[in-house]
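Lab intake sheet, docking and co-folding queue.

SAMPLE TYPE: protein with bound small molecule
LIGAND NAME: zinc ion
LIGAND FORMAT: SMILES
REQUESTED OUTPUT: full 3D complex as structure tokens
PRIORITY: normal
SUBMITTED BY: R.K., bench team

The fields below were copied directly from the construct record.
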Amino acid sequence: MYWWERNYDEWWNHPGTKDTTDFQRSKIYSAEKYAAVAVGETREAREALFQMFATEKEVEKFIKRVISYAWFVRRFGRCTIEFRVRRECNRAEGNCYSFRSTESVRSGYIIVPPSMWRTDYILHEMVHAVQLKKFGSGHGRWFAKAMMDVFQLGLPKEISKQHHEALRAGYKLYGVKHNPKRQLKVETREKLRKNFVKNCLRPAAATSEEVIKVNTPQVEHSVAELLVLDVDSLKERLEQS
Ligand SMILES: [Zn+2]
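RESULT FIELD (auto-filled):
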């Protein structure tokens, strides 16, 4: 079973609070920045990753191209993503927005100010637009997983693989969760807890007293040797004088 075919119940982040907390948003941002820095070492890579679109038409064309890839359709189904321009915005409002319209239909729209018409920003917002509400919080487990795929599709071939690996490393570094939450039976949970106590919370191998006892004879022996040597050397010195 592929990840995108899994039951959406598994993707909940906090079963108790469901869709209310966006618990790893800043971690996702950090991982994205990490990947961008890791990949953007060469000029070509930087240009591909941070490519700015000059016109509204270019952005629309880019979005259409990505959502009509067979790979994209297989994962997310047929989607429509409307692109809207956010024209007047001061610096504080320079954010991107995306909207998921309903529970079951993947059709959303994204609003991005011209200053942020960058390949990676557009791709990020596209993932928001295709994420159904039932798949947990805004930047949750499902989002993180889907983002890896969409970036691979949308970025130029030359850097997509490298970026994929860097993003994975970023997820690991910042602890971004991108797999379905483990559903454990009560017995399994108890077993894991016991193993944890046994393997991770066990006392140190030996107490300090035991260590001293083990070492003491060796120390005494070597001290005795030193004394003997000293006595010998003293004798020699006495004889010489
Ligand atoms: Zn976002």
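REVIEWER NOTE: The two ends are 92 Å apart (CA to CA).
SIGN-OFF: pending second check by T.M.
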